[in-house]
Amino acid sequence: MLAKKFLDLTRYAMLPFLLIALGAMTLLARGSAFAHAFPYYDSFFLYLAVIAIERIYSYSRAVSQRHMIWRDLMSTAVQTFLAGAVMSAIVLPVLRYFPNAFLGRRFLFGLSNQLGPLWVQVLAVFLLSTFWEYWMHRFEHYNAFLWKLHGYHHSVTHIQISNVLVSNPFEWALRNILGGLLLSIVGFNPIAIVIAGTLNVYGDFSHCGGDMKGGWLNYFFNTPEVHRWHHAAEFPDDQRFRYGCNFGVGVTFWDIIFGTFYLPQDEKGHAIPPARIGHPGGYADEPNYLKILLGARAFPAVTRLFERRDTLSPVAAE
Ligand SMILES: [Zn+2]
Ligand SMILES: [Zn+2]
Predict the structure, then answer these.
(1) d(Cα 139, Cα 113) in Å, to the nearest integer?
(2) Cβ(277)–Cβ(159) under 8 Å?
(3) 7 confidence band (pLDDT: 50, 70, 90)
(4) How far is the CA of 249 from the centre of ligand 1 (A)?
(5) Of 50, 145, 212, 311, which residue is least crowded by CB atoms under 10 Å?
(6) Cα(38)–Cα(241) distance, integer angstroms
(7) Which ligand does the CA of 247 lie closest to?
(8) Is the confidence at residue 281, as pLDDT, over 90?
(9) Distance, CA 47 to ligand 2 centroid (Å)?
């Protein structure tokens, strides 16, 4: 009985604890030989820790995603190693041109201490980047073309850490990279950026497939309980949610402020999960990563190319 109570309590505490551990580790290892030798060590640690949590706190409504593992790995590799780098290579030279040409320096502000004390900078980076993510994500649901690209993320049938980065790289980078690039020319203190980034780590945690509880954190962070409603196969039956709900990537307070937050509760105050996870338009989960990469749904010519290939393949001809 006591052991069960303890396990239930850790359902609330495990993700916040991991956030603090990740933040402390990143700050301590910053600039160290270890961080240079293993540049993506923090991402690996995060993924392994969340996979372990998913195993311990198994979710009763989980749908097996085992057959999608290669698609998940390909998508994760492209977003991690390529999407951000390509977006930066295209956008940064344009962004850097302006302070360079008009101010004669790399950043809008020469020294980061001109922007105020560290805590003010943490707050500014955190608010500005989460604000960007919220509105860009909301726009991706509203705009028909971007919704076709972003729709690949909504086709998954169970949210878990392996599919947090499943999406077309272009729409993913618009939401998760471009805002940061715009902020990067301001000249904020790099430590402020690390701390604000850690506070936003629920962007990854939101896809923890374990049966985790958010409690009052649901009203600040994009917990798995909140994000499952973003992935509901049927959007809540209300005009406010006709394009979806819970658009915040790492946080929920922008949804609360702008009226798109949705999390129903039972009489005990526990969050009620959606009946089913999936694309509200009925699109099946896409196993072919090449189609996601090329955004086949958004380009009829690419769709036709895949259809021709499918009809020509011997498997389809049998
Ligand atoms: Zn979405
Ligand atoms: Zn998601």
Answers:
(1) 34
(2) yes
(3) confident
(4) 9
(5) 311
(6) 42
(7) 1
(8) yes
(9) 15
CA of 293 to the centre of ligand 1 (A): 17
Tell which residue, 167, 124, 106, has the closest CA to residue 291: 167
Encoded tokens for 181: 């690039």
Axis-axis angle for helices 169-176, 118-142 (nearest 10):
140
Shortest-distance ligand to the CA of residue 156 = 2
Nearest C-alpha neighbor of 83 from the set 153, 171, 201: 171
Beta bridge partners of residue 251, listed in sequence order:
221
pLDDT in tens, 50-65: 999 999 998 888 888 8
Q: How many A from CA of 230 to the centre of ligand 1?
A: 6
Cα(313) to centroid(ligand 2), Å? 33
Instruction: Look at residue 313 in the predicted model and tell me its pLDDT.
Output: 65
* Ligand in nearest proximity to the CA of 246: 1
What distance in angstroms lies between residue 71's CA and the mean position of ligand 2's atoms? 15
CA dihedral 12, 13, 15, 17 (to 10 degrees): 170
The token pair at 267 is 């009489």
What pLDDT score does 315 carry?
A: 57
CB 265, CB 220: distance < 8 Å: no
The answer, yes or no, to whether residue 82 has pLDDT greater than 80, is yes
pLDDT at 317: 46
Cite the DSSP H helix spans in 109-250.
118-142, 144-154, 169-176, 178-184, 190-199, 202-205, 224-230
DSSP 126-157: HHHHHHHHHHHHHHHHHSHHHHHHHHHHHT-S
For residue 221, give the 3-state DSSP assignment: strand
Say which ligand is closest to the CA of 165.
Answer: 2
- Rounded-to-integer distance, Cα 107 and Cα 104, Å: 9
C-alpha 68/C-alpha 158 separation (Å) is 11
- The predicted model scores a pTM of 0.91
| Centroid of ligand 2 to alpha carbon of 136 (angstroms) | 14
